[in-house]
Design a protein that fits this description.
Low-confidence stretches: none
Order of helices and strands: HHHHHHHHHHHHHHHHHHHHHHHH
Number of strands: 0
Mean pLDDT: 84
Shape: globular
Number of domains: 2
Strand content: under 5%
Helix content: over 70%
Distance between the termini: 33 Å
Length: about 525
């Protein structure tokens, strides 16, 4: 295929930082989880407490899935089988969109196509790079778990889980980039499919188990590493990948370069946006509405079991102690709610970073330059998006904390619980702002490395996931702003949220100052 080899080399060169960071992060999570679980659950009784205690709670089933083996390897596969597989799918989506639709949107694909390059070469190169990344990740995961002595067959199965999840969503992204005209829309389409797959798997594992079979992520978990592996489920993955790739290439051959199946809707023939803030709101309101709806639904679900969390967990004292330690309260319900609010805070930080990095997307697309050619100043343009990022974070955490507080108050017949639970959500705001400020500083000082803002959130997620079960040292735990957030309800409120808010403002102001002094684009 003319031009394929050169395009693969170009993609690997462009991803020389992106791919090692993603692969290193995921591999590190696997190694830390495997080594920590090997030390923590080295007795049958300790593993039984997890399987029949924490592993049976609806919230845990929704996050990580079901436990299929009571061995150390089985627990490791369970802990890695929820969020980690979704992250692998996200990595594949970003790779494919970056080297296909994003290049068409920026005009790079048209320049490349002017040479001796097959029309199918860019998509083929993107898929081959994504496939290579997933295969390398699968080999690293299998080798790491095998080196820990968890069993060869199960370790290979976990590696196949990772690689298979990534390959399926690379195929999903290949179709998404044919449907949408803009890279952001293609990412949203593929991301929605990924979110739906995770949601179906979560509902199926926590409720009707047959729903898990409707999710590609559920198929990978049904491989059941360390529990008499079911290799035949890989046929389901193949049955999804092949038709999707056929459809992607078929559409590619029939559409115009730069076009898509879903045509963008034209704007109004008459109308005017009076300020950059109104424009930022127009660009980001749809994403904020989707995030808020998701927060409200999950907040309602988690709050509904807070009052009966003791019955849900059962008699396992080790699990009860773990929840109390994580939540910082002797009251089991308070500790559970405090832990849940911390998770919401981390997810809200993802929104804050996404909203801030919209600045970079507008800059690379050339929209910022046109806007700044008018009377709009750089600081005013940046602050329009930063304002939405900050206010949107507040909206999301209210959307999570208020429903959780309302249903918990109804169950306990105590209206005062509404304020207590809502306070637990609101104290997470400054920590999420800090990560948004970090993303803004990177945008100002090193715009080409803006994607590192996601890495800051990933690091905090990793610290939150691994820190409590691994002896990583207080210095590493202190890196995450969420370590310093008061654990409410149940804990004591301190000055930490105010300190974090000041840090966020300072870091963000430095980013704005840097942007005012650098070249646009």
């Amino acid at each position: 295929m003319p031009g394929l080899r050169d395009l693969i080399r170009l993609a690997l060169r462009r991803d020389r930082v992106f791919l090692p960071v993603w692969l290193g992060f995921l591999a590190f999570a696997v190694v830390i989880t495997g080594s920590s679980y090997k030390d923590l659950y080295n007795t049958p009784q300790s593993r039984a407490d997890v399987v029949h205690g924490l592993g049976d709670t609806p919230a845990t089933l929704a996050l990580y899935g079901r436990i299929y083996a009571d061995s150390v390897g089985g627990l490791v596969a369970w802990r890695l089988g929820g969020i980690s597989l979704a992250l692998v799918g996200l990595m594949s989506i970003l790779i494919v969109v970056r080297h296909t639709r994003a290049d068409e949107e920026s005009g790079r694909a048209e320049l490349i196509g002017a040479g001796v390059v097959d029309r199918r070469a860019p998509l083929t190169a993107a898929l081959l790079v994504a496939a290579a990344a997933n295969v390398v990740l699968g080999v690293i995961v299998a080798a790491a778990l095998g080196a820990l002595g968890l069993g060869v067959g199960g370790s290979i199965a976990v590696g196949v889980e990772f690689a298979g999840s990534g390959l399926m969503f690379a195929a999903v992204a290949a179709v998404a980039v044919q449907l949408a005209v803009f890279a952001r829309s293609a990412t949203a389409i593929a991301g929605t499919v990924l979110a739906a797959a995770y949601l179906l798997r979560a509902i199926g594992d926590a409720g009707p188990h047959w729903l898990s079979w409707l999710s590609p992520l559920g198929w990978m978990q049904q491989l059941r590493p360390f529990a008499s592996e079911r290799w035949w489920v890989l046929a389901l993955a193949l049955a999804l990948i092949v038709p999707l790739l056929w459809a992607a290439f078929a559409i590619l051959q029939r559409r115009d370069l730069g076009g898509g199946v879903i045509a963008p809707t034209p704007g109004p023939t008459h109308g005017e946006l009076a300020s950059p803030l109104q424009l930022a709101w127009r660009l980001q309101r749809g994403a904020l509405a989707g995030w808020a709806l998701g927060f409200a639904i999950v907040g309602l679900a988690l709050g509904s079991i807070a009052h009966d969390i003791g019955n849900v967990i059962g008699d396992s004292e080790s699990v009860r102690k773990a929840i109390r330690d994580l939540g910082g309260s002797s009251n089991l319900s308070d500790a559970y709610l405090a832990t849940s609010m911390t998770v919401f805070g981390l997810i809200a930080a993802l929104y804050a970073v996404q909203a801030v990095l919209r600045l970079r997307a507008e800059e690379t697309a050339g929209h910022a330059e046109m806007l700044l050619a008018t009377g709009v100043t750089r600081a005013r343009w940046v602050l329009s998006h930063v304002t939405l990022a900050a206010a949107g974070t507040v909206v999301l955490l209210v959307a999570a904390g208020l429903p959780a507080g309302l249903i918990y108050a109804a169950q306990t017949s105590d209206a005062g619980q509404i304020g207590r639970v809502l306070a637990g959500a609101l104290v997470q705001i400054p920590a999420a702002w800090v990560l948004g400020g970090v993303a803004l500083a990177i945008f100002g000082f090193a715009p080409r490395a803006s994607a590192a803002g996601w890495g800051a959130v990933a690091l905090c997620v990793l610290i939150g996931e691994i820190g409590p079960v691994a002896d990583v040292g207080d210095w590493l735990l202190d890196v995450s702003p969420f370590t310093h957030v008061p654990l409410l309800p149940g804990g004591e409120f301190g000055i930490a949220p105010l300190t974090l808010a000041v840090i966020a403002a300072g870091v963000g102001a430095a980013g704005i100052a840097a942007f005012r002094r650098r070249d646009v684009g």
